[in-house]
Here is the input.
Amino acid sequence: MMDNEKIIHILKDHEGRFVSGEIISREVGITRAAIWKRISALKSMGYVIDARQNMGYRLMRSPDILTPEEIQYRLGTKIVGSEVRYYPVLESTNAEAFRVATEGGKDGLVIVTDHQTGGKGRLNRTWFSFRRQSLSLSIVLRPKIVPYVATMLTYMAGIALYETIYALTAVKPSIKWPNDILMSGKKVAGVLCELNTETDVVNFAVIGLGINLNVRKNKFPAEIRDASTSIYEETKKRVKRVTFVKELLRQFDYWYGVFLRDGGDSRILAEWKERADIVGKDVKIRSFNEEIEGEVVDVDPNGALVVQTKEGEKKRVIAGDLETVVLPEG
Ligand code: BTN
Here is the structure.
């Protein structure tokens, strides 16, 4: 741990109460003059710290920032978030995570930023992020799996997002195949999974998570405004970014554990199916150059939708855009 991190964690352990300079000095191994300097630096980062002679230092409030010391404080995860790298701005956390993973970045490493200038969505789309209002992060994963199981990683991410939103807002979102998270039928979060594979093995996966957290509706560009929403717009309550990130990493760590124990398949798929509620629905899907219409009769073990067309044919759909879901009559 870095000195700053240690000081913050000591102050947080005593939040609202004074800790003497002597104790901090002993635990961190720096002089009291050095502590004074560090405390000033923390104040300029937005920490509200009460400093009094003979009493020491008292943390009154922590800022909503995404530094490792904030995110990792009592995070309690096994793998996810064991390393966190924060940047004020990045083109894309997925691109950065991919680069870091190529250089050996470890399982569970998290890249997070305040702002993305070139966020990527699925199918080569643009993902819009808003400084300090959206959440943009990516997680490097190194499960020992064959490539076709990787679809389950994105399903797993969908479950983690779903559970995080439910835990923090008490509102159940829905999952739109393959991986849009919706509230009131509008998109509130998305997942972009990128892989580095050989023919028979996944070297690593990067799971990018984009969440419209405290974004105001009028910020969305016109072309996506009607189809987009944010957690703030749905609940009229702001959620601290760091609170959301910590819950998300905990959920992710839990479900990644399930994925690894199961060898990647059955349980994740079953849990996803429960939340996605797609089996039995009539759908229209644009997949590559084809348009497929019919009823979803199953999701197969590889994560592909099995669609029964009107002509009585069964088609597997692994990628694409779900256009409309018409509720079955009755
Ligand atoms: C989608 O719904 O199309 C996926 C959106 C994924 C956006 C996130 S934001 C963090 C990460 N970095 C990116 O460039 N994209 C993902």
